[in-house]
Amino acid sequence: MLKLQDLTLHYGHSQILNGISMQAAQGEVTCVMGTNGVGKTSLIKAISGTHPRSSGQVELGGEPLGILPAHKLAHKGIAYVPQGREIFPLLTVRENLETGFVCLPPSDHRIPEEIFELFPVLREMQNRRGGDLSGGQQQQLAIARALITKPRLLLLDEPTEGIQPNIIQEIGDVIRLLRAQGNMAIVLVEQYFEFAYDLADRFVVLRRGEVMMSGTKAQLSKADVLKGVSV
Question: Residue 231 above 70 pLDDT?
Answer without folding.
Answer: no
